[in-house]
Automatic annotation (TrEMBL):
Name of protein: M67 family metallopeptidase
Pfam families: Prok-JAB
SUPFAM superfamilies in UniProt: JAB1/MPN domain (SSF102712)
Residues of the MPN domain: 1-128
Highest taxon, organism lineage: Bacteria
Keyword Glycosyltransferase set for record: no
Keyword field contains Protease: yes
CDD domains: MPN_like (cd08070)
Listed Gene3D superfamilies: Cytidine Deaminase, domain 2
Keywords for this protein: Hydrolase, Metal-binding, Metalloprotease, Protease, Zinc
Amino acid sequence: MLIVALAEQIRTHARLTAPLECCGLLLGQGSTITEACPARNVHLSPQTHFEIDPQALIDAHRAARAGGPQVLGYYHSHPRGPAEPSATDRAMAAHDGAIWAIVGQDGAIGLWRDNKQGFEALFTEASSR
């Protein structure tokens, strides 16, 4: 699923971006995430929301069509909250089967699948950071 080096990369992005939410793309093949690509958070309220730069999404989908890694999902941080989907995340979710990695305020990472029924927990890291 999410390898240790990628988890550390995402944690570092969250730490460097705080107190704003960081965000990025999870790329790979099948159910294996091989890359975490940071993106600009273009939301008007980045302290409490995230919106991945649309150009980053376009570029990633173009690269996938050309044979590159597929967009498997997204990541973002909750600088003042837990590593689980917030009410805002639940309201904005597309219910498209994408994987969401969420970094909590304590550095723990939760992995979630955005299904038609809502978010399904795939992995939740114990808060030890």
